[in-house]
Each structure stands twice: as C-alpha cells, then as structure tokens.
Amino acid sequence: MPHWLKRRLTFLNKHSLAAALLAALWSTYLDLYFVGKGLYAFPWRPFAELFPINILFTLIVLPIFMMIFLYWAAQVNGWGKAGMILFISLLMTILEKFAEQLGLFNHSKEWQHLYTFIGYLLFLTVIMGFHSWLRRSADE
C-alpha cells in the first residue's frame, strides 16, 4: 500500500476492524431482539422481504462510524473519551427522533428515548474497552 494512502487510512487496523465487527454483530442482534419484541420497527429498509432490521446501518454505516470513532478516541485522554461517548450518545438520541420524522424508524409507545442514550453509552463504552483491550494485548 502506498505510504500516502496508509497514512490517510490509519483508522483501518486489525484492532479497529475487530471492534467494528463486534459492533456490527452486537447491534444486529440488539436490533433483531428489539424489533422482535415490538419496541421499534424499520418501515424503510433494504431487503425488507429478508430482514426485519435495517442491515445497511448495522453492517455498513455503524462499523465505519465505529472505526472512525475509535481512531479519534485514541487521540484524546480519558476525559476526552468520556466526553465523546456522552456527546455521541446524546447525538444518537437526537438523530433517532429525526429518523422517526423521516419515516425511517418507528417506536412503540413503551419506548423512551432515554433508552437510546443509555444504550449507546454502554455500547460505545464496551466497544472502546474491547478495542483498548486488543491494543494492550498486542503490546504485551
């Protein structure tokens, strides 16, 4: 790989790819669980006849986002990481409401947007912890 390209794609490493794979699998299972429980639904989704969830988001968008997030999180200290996780968790709650207005996402009456905030807070923390564990293990 040319040096200039390698420098621009530094977020593509084996640790980030593994963490992105974990994020994709975990988010897919969570979506399948919550859709199965009837807590939310995806009115528009690719391959709607095959999948009850939006696999475009869980298998492509989220893993790419996670690799970029992990790259930026590696650039800051512990407080910066905590701030990023809090900010992104809040942002996802806002984006969820926006997606509902666009008709991409529907929630049941039992759903609280606080669940999204807490869910992303835990999700991002676990994925970042997994990524850090992989990096520490490789350094030993």
What's the arrangement of strands in the largest beta sheet? Answer: 1-2
Question: How large, in whole angstroms, is the Cα Rg?
Answer: 16 Å
Instruction: Categorize the overall geometry.
Output: globular
Rounded mean pLDDT score:
89
* Number of contiguous helices: 5
Largest sheet: 2 strands, antiparallel
Q: Would you report the number of β strands?
A: 2
- Determine the fraction of residues in helical runs and give it as a percent range: over 70%
Seen as an oligomer or otherwise, the chain set is single chain
What's the helix-strand series? HHEHHEH
Distance between the ends? 27 Å
Q: What percentage of amino acids are in beta strands?
A: under 5%
Q: Give the low-pLDDT segments.
A: none
Structural class: mainly alpha
Topology overview:
Layout: H1 3-8, H2 14-36, E1 40-41, H3 55-73, H4 78-102, E2 106-107, H5 113-139
Antiparallel strand pairs: 1-2
What key attributes describe this structure?
single chain; 140 residues; mainly alpha; two-stranded antiparallel ribbon; 5 helices
